[in-house]
What we know:
The complex is a heterodimer of chains A (363) and B (129).
Chain A: H1 8-13, E1 17-21, E2 24-29, H2 33-42, E3 45-48, E4 53-58, H3 62-69, E5 83-89, E6 95-105, E7 108-113, H4 118-128, E8 142-148, H5 152-156, H6 162-169, E9 176-179, E10 182-185, E11 194-200, H7 204-213, E12 217-219, H8 221-230, H9 267-276, E13 281-287, E14 298-301, E15 304-315, E16 320-327, E17 334-339, E18 342-349, E19 354-355, E20 358-359
Chain B: E1 8-9, E2 14-18, E3 23-28, H1 30-36, E4 39-43, E5 50-51, E6 56-62, E7 66-70, E8 75-80, H2 90-93, E9 102-106, H3 118-128
Antiparallel strand pairs in B: 1-2, 2-3, 3-9, 4-6, 5-8, 6-7, 8-9
Amino acid sequence: xxSRTPLxxxxxxxxxxxxxxxxxxxxxxxxxxxxxxxxVREHSGVFDVSHMRPVDIEGADALPFLRRLLxxxxxxxxxxxxxxxxxxxxxEGGVIDDLICYYRGPERYRAVVxxxxxxxxxAWMQEQAQGFExxxxxxxxxxxxxxxxxDARTKAEPLLPPALREPAMALKPFFAAEDDHWFVGxxxxxxxxxxxxxxxxxxxxxxxxxxxDAGVTPCGLGARDTLRLEAGMNLYGQDMTEEIGPLESxxxxxxxxDPKERDFIGRAALxxxxxxxxxxxxxxxxxxxxxxxxxxxxxxxxxxxxxxxTSGGFSPTLQRSIALARIEPAxxxxxxxxxxxxxxxxxxxxxxxxxxxxxxxxx
Amino acid sequence: MTIPxxxxxxxxxxxxxxxxxxxxxVGITDHAQDALGDLVFVELxxxxxxxxxxxxxAVVESVKAASDIYxxxxxxxTAANEALDGAPETINEDAYGEGWIYQLKLSxxxxxxxxxxxxxxxxxxxxxx
Lengths: 363, 129
């Protein structure tokens, strides 16, 4: 049996299909993954993401510590509440995890890391914190919900603590507001507007139930995966790993090489990769033939393996199969993917596939 | 989860309907469609193809994964449910009816005796827990 979030009893009551995920027992869907997907694109859905781990980073050296730890530069965060997406690299330039880091005020940050990697991440962070005046309390007292979709913010607003309603609705994308252990970020993993909300675990069930009563659809990890794939967002462990770094995972934009004197972990390895060149491209694929793209299927051109699908699936919005893939630089606009021994034609496209309910590629 | 008594079953969750004219209709059970989740693609067997019992002959793909369909009995494929091409979710909605996958002309009708009846299939599901 895996760990259970504070909402586990709610998931069971709703008849969720429960699956093991990163050491947790999590809802895969509550009946139909595709209906849940459409609910988020068209109205609003709520995901229990309490398996993800907030870690506070506090102390006089919080800033220099994070500027060493992360490939993106937290010095960019000037306004309290501003969020930054970053990879945490190993010295070889591979990805230990990807995370969001919020600036809460001088010497106070909060990172949110993936469930499956949380223990590894925290051990790494503590090891790297040697010599810095910084403390890293994990916040297992907090639950986390993602409310996503075009109606998500207006549905959530009246259910937030009164003092947070106005500040939350005034948030620009990628900013957060907080009050009395509630933390509301205008962020997400679906390609839709919405909030990610951290709150005391004891209040999670009441808030969850209130959202459902307001007509927000409960959504499981299945819909979360197809939504993020359509949005062209990477999944750690599939699209990037400890072996495959950000420059070959479409995450070069998250690596802050400037200023040059900032010596973040993994910098030398990434600079060597850039110097060497001939990096693999990270692209989107649209399957034009019949079938469903899945991770690890080979990308082939004229019978030769030229890459691999890293995340694939069926896009409920486009009614086509789509994928993220890593391919050789020489691959042109057309390729094929080997599905059960057959080369099925596909087209190379630029993600995202879908944003704010609308297709971003031509079919 | 329904298990119609007039059908035969396999441990790999296919159902077989004896059409009484030397042909059978094959699909996947209600339990199978529920376990797979929303179906998004079906690869049908070609009409005319000769199959032996337990041959992998079709593929159903859900939002989660691809699963092989194994022919419960041997014979020649006489029909494939082309309507599933545009509407694979029909299997989720009506696994034992409109969601049938293919029909087969039996090469050896005695193979039907090797299949499970509804009671035995129910026991298979109970054992899987």
